[in-house]
Amino acid sequence: MAWVSTAELVSAVSNAGGLGIIAAGNLTPEELEKEIKRTREMTDKPFGVNIMLLSPHVDSLIEVVCQQKIPVVTTGAGNPGKYMDTFKNAGIKVIPVVASPSLAKRMENLGADAVIAEGMEAGGHVGKLTTMVLIPQVVDAVSIPVIAAGGIADGRGVAAAFCLGASGVQIGTRFVCSQECTVHTEYKKRIVKAGPMDSVLTGLSTGHPVRSLRNKLTRKLLQIEKNGASFEEIEKLTLGSLRRAVVEGDIAEGSVMAGQIAGMIKDIKPVKEIITDLIEEANNVLASLHGGVTV
Fold first, then answer.
1. Which of 180, 266, 252 has the alpha carbon at shortest distance from 8?
2. Where is pLDDT greater, at 124 or 2?
């Protein structure tokens, strides 16, 4: 959620009872410290930081979250093992994103406090397993809590995640279409207008697939992949594309990252209303299945 999950969205989620997560993937250490301070001006509730471990600033970003006493860090795009002692010594709970049961088990052995098991329905960089098959296998593989992600946009999805054994859910695309999210209006409109078949995977030939909504950029990417383009050629075409979409509103040549559930999102509303609706619907579904059991 680089360029997307900023202090405005993070604080709104935490204020509404969720755990907002600052996306640090596009930030320098100085920018992350500023974003943390901005978030604290907007909420007195806990929030976390997501660190992309391939960031060129990763060591300095970790230093910032430790100095700022951030309670929770989620990690992606790498192995957090070499930083685990640093996190633990700072009292930080570590929750890596995983795409397979074997990786989840490895993270548990490294000392992770929980894992986010993300199915390939999610937006952005994804793995190969769907949420429906991934969650129960990860739950069976580890003894730490499992947070489900990918393909969750309403209370039915939340209820399904709990039925599969998850202890919580991580939601991205639905919150992009919130009033508090600062992404460009055109980006939000594109998601709202999306149909059930509008998401597409690019980068499959490189082993690093990315899910986004169809546009001129995805068509170019799919064509050059078909023609045997190298990873470097694909990377050159996508460089800066997420920022173009999120910040500049270029939904034709920018990367409009969104999950398959984009086709389910039909409105833009406040974060608190989104969370309230998610919980109420999930409770209704679980009550009908289990005779009154709620979350």
1. 180
2. 124
